């Protein structure tokens, strides 16, 4: 039986953005548009209404960022020099699970068979655009890269990073909620938090295992897989569930916190 690595990331708030890891410069950016700014203004009004009505959580529609989330994960995975790194796709089933978890407004892990990266931004000032929350969360997860020691058999203080680049993980689904009050499960509450949740499958971060096999790109792909232009393994096992769901659109921004499992 394989033991899972317990969450070991710091619970200290990140007071200012971390410097970007040099290799991320080539990744596509998603600059705010006029529509982003308008949506951000609407979100501010919505947050005020939520507080007035006393609601706990409201759905934040981030479907337009699906491509960015998937593309950024794959670009980062392609940088690792792995022989068996799988291409990652969006899974709507994982999105649904992530949304249900974010809707609870509790900053803790479910630990039920999926990889999990969690983050939130809380503020008494203007509510950040959801795109900013997504970009900052992913960037800070990946910025744990220098903390990882390959071959130790543990993700240590870099569990967000290792889950993102775990070779056998091939599907991701993310969601966001606006939480008027986000609990950390240990008695602390963060006000006006935008809670970002990503679930991964198959899960990673197993004790005694390394995230991937070093070597030439695609040289150790599973049988029947092809090699993408990014140098990632692509096969039938990679495709996630793509069934769409309908959700009432509406959700919760600068203290940042993250957890990985």
Automatic annotation (TrEMBL):
Residues 64-208 form the SCP domain. Keywords: Membrane, Transmembrane, Transmembrane helix. The keyword Transmembrane helix applies. Residues 1-34 are annotated as: Disordered. The chain crosses the membrane at residues 42-62. This is Cysteine-rich secretory protein LCCL domain-containing 2. It comes from Magallana gigas.
């Amino acid at each position: 039986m394989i033991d899972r690595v317990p969450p070991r990331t710091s619970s200290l708030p990140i007071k200012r953005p971390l410097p970007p890891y040099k290799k991320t410069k080539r990744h596509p950016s998603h600059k705010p548009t006029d529509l982003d700014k308008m949506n951000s203004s609407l979100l501010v009004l919505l947050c005020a209404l939520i507080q007035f009505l006393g609601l706990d959580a409201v759905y934040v529609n981030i479907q337009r960022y699906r491509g960015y989330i998937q593309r950024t994960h794959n670009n980062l995975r392609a940088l690792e020099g792995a022989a068996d790194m799988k291409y990652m796709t969006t899974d709507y089933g994982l999105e649904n699970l992530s949304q249900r978890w974010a809707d609870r407004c509790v900053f803790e892990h479910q630990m039920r068979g999926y990889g999990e990266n969690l983050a939130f931004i809380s503020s008494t000032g203007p509510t950040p655009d959801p795109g900013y929350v997504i970009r900052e969360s992913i960037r800070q997860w990946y910025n744990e890269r220098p903390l990882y020691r390959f071959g130790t058999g543990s993700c240590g203080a870099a569990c967000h990073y290792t889950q993102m680049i775990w070779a056998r993980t091939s599907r991701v689904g993310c969601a966001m909620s606006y939480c008027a009050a986000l609990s950390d499960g240990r008695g602390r509450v963060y006000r006006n938090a935008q809670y970002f949740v990503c679930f991964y499958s198959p899960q990673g971060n197993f004790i005694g295992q390394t995230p991937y096999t070093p070597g030439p790109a695609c040289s150790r792909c599973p049988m029947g897989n092809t090699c993408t232009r990014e140098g990632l393994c692509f096969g039938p096992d990679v495709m996630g569930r793509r069934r769409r769901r309908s959700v009432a659109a509406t959700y919760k921004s600068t203290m940042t916190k993250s957890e990985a499992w």
